[in-house]
Design a protein that fits this description.
3 strands, elongated, 19% strand, 72 residues, 3-stranded antiparallel sheet, mainly beta
Length: 72
């Protein structure tokens, strides 16, 4: 069963709630009883290999200003 992270806006505490995905958007009161909570964005890391079996090299950071080529 997925776990969702929430933060209480009233007291600032962070807590987890385990619930089915169908109920993911339901409100979740904080353990201290406050109702003003917000669901936090969760990150997921996916690792593995391609179907070819060999690990793929990380992408190179080329091109554009964000790649460091044009900024000085």
């Amino acid at each position: 069963m997925p776990r969702y992270d929430y933060r209480c806006r009233a007291c600032g505490s962070t807590f987890e709630v385990s619930r089915p995905m169908i109920n993911a958007s339901d409100p979740a009161p904080c353990p201290d009883g406050h109702d003003d909570t917000v669901k936090l964005l969760s990150t997921v890391a996916v690792t593995g290999t391609s179907r070819g079996g060999a690990p793929q090299p990380p992408p190179s950071g080329g091109g554009g200003c964000c790649g460091g080529g044009c900024c000085s």
